[in-house]
Design brief:
One of its GO terms (biological process) is carbohydrate metabolic process. The protein is an alpha+beta fold. Helix content is about 20%, strand content about 25%.
Amino acid sequence: NVDLKTLIFSNQFHQITSSLPSKYVYGLGEHKAKFRKDVNWKRYTFFNYDVAPKFNTPLYGTHPFYFTVEEYSTFASGVLLFNSNSMDVFLSPAPAIAFRPIGGVLDFFIFVNENPASVVQDYIHLIGLPVMPPLWAFGFHISRYGWRNVDHMKQVRSRTLNAKLPLETMWNDIEYMEKHNDFTYDKLKFADLPKFIDTLHKSGMHYVVILDPGVSGGEPPNTYPPYDDGIKMDIFIKNASGQILIGKVWNHSGKTVFPDFTNPNATEYWKKQTQRFYSEIKFDGLWLDMNEIANFVNGSLDGCPSSSIEDPPYVPGYVTLKHKGVCATAKTHAGFYYDTHNLYSIYQTEATYRTLLEVKPGKRPFILGRSTFPGSGKYQIHWTGDVSSIWEDLEYSIPSILDFNIFGIPFVGADICGFYQDTTSELCARWMAVGAFYPFSRNHNSKEQIDQDPASPNFGPEVVQASRYALNLRYKLIPYFYTLFYRAHTFGETVIRPLFFTFPHDNKAYEIESQFMWGSGLMILPVLKQGVSHVHAYLPSGIWYENTTKVYHSNGEYFNFDAPIDKINVLIRGGEIIPYADETLLTKDLHKVNFNLFVALDEHYMAKGELYWDDGESIDSLEKAEFNFAQFEAANVRYMKKKCWVSIFTFSRKH
């Protein structure tokens, strides 16, 4: 409902306003906020920005998409403003919305459907279906910024395995690098890194390493190929005068240059560096950090020229364009950085995806990225950045993960137990329990903090106990979880869902943000507050199973659940058949153990489910039809003298 008489369309400022169908507004990321967005005169700024998550500030990604649900109806509509410039979006109580980008065009896509889940599915089909992660990515990951050396990594791995905890992947942050330079490793502190990686691989585990976009621009000539090759190929971002722009990030040289991934030669450049690095360090995936672009100086070491591009008449969110970033007047192949800043990460991620297809042919690329834009999910997964070890950030991890499921990046997680500040035993136990049900389940923290891996001697036994319970349950449920990601990759469905996606006619479900669904079949009831030993949870109408003997019959009401420190409550919805595996500590063993079915009958004594399963790593399993797919159905069980007959319909090729 737009009155074009109020439209403003000028060189560096556009404004368009519209009324909204209701106050039920979702999307508009990336921000630290509730899943349902505040319409009480609220500003949301979109400018990819290197900052620890906090309220009322832009974060790492730009997703100017929202959907609304009509009052007293399930009908929903969604809107995407496909614009890469910095912008503000205002929500007001009317309810109404106003877009204020500072450049580009007003390119709107509008979606209308019978329920919010279908609107989101239509949106994801537009921007691109998400990647299918490799099976090993579904395991538990341990990382930290500040490993002292390889022995430190070995100690953490050893005590995790001794505690009988699942562990799939070890990660390195920038501490492994020589002088914090990309595509190198420290041959003193991390001399044994190649051998350690080989040990991981022989035991069925995996290894992921970090790369930042900035490369050192201060090494002696002909000693650092990432810089020397970039000069020869002319692929670095230029300043306003056409010289290579020099910033400062982690490199010890104090000078950092940035590849221009909009340059047609950038992928070939990135591939060359990655292949050289892979000849020494046999990583299984890459972690792209600082790719907003982040910069430790404002603009460049030489500053930025004075111009209306650097200092536009309207500044969204009062965040100056060069703050902790690159000059807006910098030149990329696609145009001024003023226009391409929010696109930098998706160009880098696509180049990395194409690179890994050649470095590891036939395998699914695994890329974790911090900065995002609509369509990033085609290439990468995401984590929610540098959260703190506080209860508030544990609580806000749930809406963040729900947000990224509607943004088409469903394989997402927060740093379990928090990145900044020292965690506590109680907080880490609760966070490990919730984090076991993040799609991306990784414990990671900063170098100033204590070891917080779940078997760390800094904690009491409750952290190991809570971790073992939740992670063992996660690994058992991977067949179901993997099937949900097959559906996300193939049909654009969400994986982690708010309750109202499954129960759109239930008005109470729209108010719930402390519980979430895995698909339509599992509900997770986490503890998100300190000192709590019970969960007061809402169960939509139907039958809910805690196990084969404990069943809840709900008419759309709240129930109290015991929540001891070593347990997380997970319920199965009646009407679902959930495939699950026998217990295992490594995802590779899921190809060896038995699979089982939990048949949760609804009030009509019926249930349905399905299972997708392939080799867990091939990029073309679907194209070559090299997978198993089974559908399960139980019907009219009450007439069969309590025997549950399950019909199984399968399509199978090779695996």
